Amino acid sequence: MPLTTTGDLITRAAAAHSAVASFNVITLEHVEAVVAGAESVRAPVVLQVSENAVKFRGGQLLPLARAAVAVAERAAVPVALHLDHVQSDALLHQTADAGFSSVMYDAARLPYAENLTATRAAVDRAHARGLWIEAELGQIGGKNGRPPLDAHAPGARTDPDEARAFVADSGVDALAVAIGSSHAMTTRTAALDHALLKRLSAALDVPLVLHGSSGVPDDELRAAVAGGITKVNIGTALNIALTGAIRDFLADRPEAVDPRSYLTLAREAMTRTVARTLKALGSATA
What we know:
Elements: H1 6-15, E1 20-24, H2 28-41, E2 45-50, H3 51-56, H4 62-73, E3 79-86, H5 89-94, E4 102-105, H6 112-128, E5 132-137, H7 160-170, E6 174-177, H8 194-203, E7 208-210, H9 218-226, E8 229-234, H10 236-252, H11 259-281
Parallel strand pairs: 1-2, 1-8, 2-3, 3-4, 4-5, 5-6, 6-7, 7-8
């Protein structure tokens, strides 16, 4: 079916008090697995390409983007494309022309005033191209090898009053909030601050996004969705599934050289992870 938009999926999820799962993809196998997993449980899904994934591909956005578009357009469920954690203005300018309907502009590393100024400028550029735009306030941590912030460190959690002002002054369409998750977690041990999420949900009238969801247990994810999270980002969980399948295959068959043999298993493992996640979130209809 034709590509849908992230904004449309988010609007539908918000009306149903549910959440859209948004999976970070690096390879074609990631893309195929996300769509296959979503089709298996008949759930809509968002494919995310991060700025780091673009850097991995030599700074070229279009090869992976066009592959994602081709797979998405043949999907039996609604699929949208989202550009994630963009810091480069040059990359932001390529978003709409590459098939993406949305972008997460990441200036959360900057002091509040600088984050606001940079995000406001990004919002103006994105909206002029018809793009739905997400930003981040607070620091979720764990990106680019940096450890997550201590729960009590200044700026480690999103302040509701500050968030209300930030959303009003920046004009963003959604806000990623720091409530206890962390990027790149390989264990599902994160404990979310649900009291803070309740305050944020009451203070804001835009969809709330949870980053670093691979490290969040299923019951915590379900509680977060019930508490107001409308977009759930997952990346590391796919990489764990892919790497584990390849590692196990090659450990048993050190003589193997044909990548199709182990990439098939890796894709199947990621597909199962996608389907399980969608069921846990309540997004599945099958």
